[in-house]
Amino acid sequence: MDFSDVTICIPTKGRADKQVTLDFLGDRLRGFCTLLVESEEFDDYSLTVDDVNIVAMPPEVKGIGKVRQWAVENCPTPYLFLLDDDMVFFKRIANTVKLEKCDPYMIEDLFEELVNWMSLDDVPVVGVSARQGNNHNPNNYQEHTRQMNFHGIDVQRFKTLGLRFDGQDVMEDFYMILSLLTQGIANRVMYQYCWNQVGSGAAGGCSSYRTWEMQKRCAEELAASFPDFVTVVEKTTKTTWKEFPTRFDVRVQWKKAYEKGIGYKL
After folding, report:
1. Residue 223: pLDDT above 70?
2. C-alpha to C-alpha distance for 104 and 25, rounded to whole angstroms
């Protein structure tokens, strides 16, 4: 695959000296990558990151949801991938749920498969499993399910379906997926591969502006937008979300949202 129909956008903030995802993708896919940075950080990234397109966001485009939406609206290719900037990737060892770290050739196979899902199987939104819980699902993929941090989208269908990433300040990807499922259209998340990252709350990224109050408000907003499928819960974690270990989060009934969407279509 020549990937000429693909744009890979990596929103990044405060991490000019540590581009984990970009470095992991390999030299070939790097040529299709664009870093999306705040205008005041453009010089920092330009001096530190070589051989990749870097775009400064307009001043009004702040926060991950608005940045992702800007990427959709300005994407020059049919297929867009939106990746967090701190991801490493793994692939299942044949006939097991055990994992091995991907090399660049495996990563290319991953992207090719996702493009095929969008172009051949007509799936408008695709993703990749997180490492946590990946071994609980032996299938190659799961439909109408949770998806975050790694998003592949068919740009034209995304727009036609009225999907957006800027519906909320945070949890915007959950808002987008629920907006899809409640139309009776499934997303598809790959389990043959998975990603891992340092953990929510690591320096830079969303942790630089996300507050406890914002997290609580957006959890409540998501529940208000999709009351039949979203419940606000309080969670305590020891290893992630170090900026506020006790936080408000959501429990989502993804399959129920999809099934109700199917019912609306009938």
Report:
1. yes
2. 6
